[in-house]
Amino acid sequence: MRLSEEELLREAKAFINQYYSENELDGAYRRWQEIEDEIALTGSYTHTFEELDYGAKLAWRNSNRCIGRLFWKTLKTIDAREVATAEEFEQALEHHLAAAEQRTKIRSTITVFAPLGSTRKEPFRIKNYTLLMYAGYREGDRVIGDPKNVDFTRYCESLGWKGRGGDFDVLPVVYSVDEGPDQWYQIPEALVSEVEISHPEHAWVAELGLKWYKLPVISFMGLRVGGVLYPAAPFNGWYMLDEIATRNFGDEQRYNTLPLFAEHLKLDRSSPFWKEKALLVLNEAVYYSFEAAHATIVDHHKAVDQFMKFVEQEQVLGREVTGEWSWLVPPTAGSTTAVFHTEMKDELKFPNFVGA
pTM score > 0.85 for this model? Predict the structure, then answer.
């Protein structure tokens, strides 16, 4: 959704002042005059790469649901605003995946495509929640694959895509150009890094055939910087352990593997603690597997320690950290972490990531 001219001017001025102030730069007033003139002439304005780069970093710093904000300054921005064709768009997605994973280490990366209101390029929109997603196929009362993605899988099939019918089929990227018809693109298998799940003490875990991809690339949100909306701006960090083990594999409405783990561990399911015992082994397996594969992952205790350090750093600089408590508290052993006992406002600040 495009902003009114009044809203655009207000956000643009606030961002430019913040950019020049935080970076201790001269020339804010001169730059603001350029932007005012451009908005009066075209209805929008163009960020320099430096402004776009810092705006993307600020969007991460302001992300209320993200626990990994300590590293906001390290975000790598890939400027794809000149991408115009579907072929170039698909190549840019491939480039993002290749750039984000270097020698098994993950680099936080964002690729920014053309904004709304651009006089040069038409905006792209990505329909996937994340670039990499596993398909879900409903067969009667059961689901093969990820139940979360059953509807999206059906939609992909309606566009002509066909999966193998397995538990871990990577879905295509569905996107549109300038609000045109949706089209799909299958990311080459060579660019999809996955970790097979095993356990150092329980050989049967490897026999379950579980695996997960290394890169969580959020792709359904737009980037809003200084009043300008970039509808396609896929960005990634790295996984926190709980996201894969506790939620993706553990939730009943997802892969629901806890009963399977309990069966192999010969747990008494009449005990009120069987889920906790199964969940511990599941978390151990995922963490061990990612570590063995030299794939970047952070456990929930370390992630919270990093977040609290971020809060401390921001407070020293006189900036209040906002956050959505229910997203920041880890689902595993939440009350044993400092963030569980921390109050904060859930207030939206810009720049930020928003619905595109």
Answer: yes
